[in-house]
Amino acid sequence: MSESREFCPRCGDPVPERRDPLPGEPRGRDALLCDDCYFEDFELVDAPDRIEVLVCSGCGAVRRGESWRDVGARDYTDIAVDEVAEALGVHVDAADVEWGVEPEQVDENTVRMHCRFSGVVRGTLRSAEVTVPVKISRGTCDRCGRIAGGYYAGIVQVRADERDLTLAERAEALEIAERYVAEQEANGDREAFVTEVKETDDGPDVKLSSNRLAQNVATRITESLGGSFESYPTLVTEDSDGNEVYRVTFAVRLPKYAEGEVIDPQDGDGPVLVTRVSGRLQGVRLASGDEYTSAFADAEAPDATRLGTRDDATETTVVTVEDENAIQVLDPVTYEAKTVPNPAFIGDDADEVLAFEHEGEVHLVPREGDVPSVTRRSKSN
What is the pLDDT of residue 118? Predict the structure, then answer.
């Protein structure tokens, strides 16, 4: 190899003829050094002597800088690996770098990370091993601190119009709230949480971390269960910039009638089993099995008399099918044989039916899950 007139500025030995450095090769002053002098001070890996990681003992989030981050780690070893990967630096001149790490659990709060690196520098394969202790300390993130302190900004109160909530409505309202909040958390919103659920005789009160969250929960409850909601803001304080801070109550009012109730709209066509209350009230006529929809002006709350619920119905025996319009069954209270309308949702070969009595009258109801035909079918076969 020919030699240039250039010499290593440190030891004075001649260096090979210069050319423009390729990607990954040293540049600047280091490029003037001979290989021996260059590698004399060369360190492939820059590693800290120790890494301390603050982990929230409540949710497992990791403190990075001024913020907390959900890292999705399975255990503290995963956290240690991530933190070491962030902290280690590989020399800029190294190419084709490969590395591996072997964690050693020293005790409950310390993980020793044995790291191995290799890379090509000036055409030479170099390797290095470093050991970095990672100390895990525990604290409380802002989110968990707020939850522990009972912080909330919005309340969703779920009630029903002129009646008690059903158990199913209570359960579905809470499931809607918890599912929506979980979706927001999964999308990275660390400020989304349910602070408290308080069950009252009238219905649940759900305290949430923000007004936006509470409003969206109220919207989803009424979309699913019907009804409407109104908001009532209350001034609670001012922030550091002098802006007013409000706590808002969203009062959800579910419809006057619930799914599964039996009502009589007093229109001459007999009682109705309510099957849907979102928008206009819908149901099934118990006398015929035909579909019922309230008038547009009445929407979810037509004037009607409450007769009972599907849960009031019990199994009773079919005595005889008189014709397609009449069927004789045993009164579920007196056990007398009574003739009642033969609706479309009763099968031709039914031996037992669901029925309940109201003021001496027996009403047949479809079983839960049955979808009666809208068109009257023939029972003559």
Answer: 79
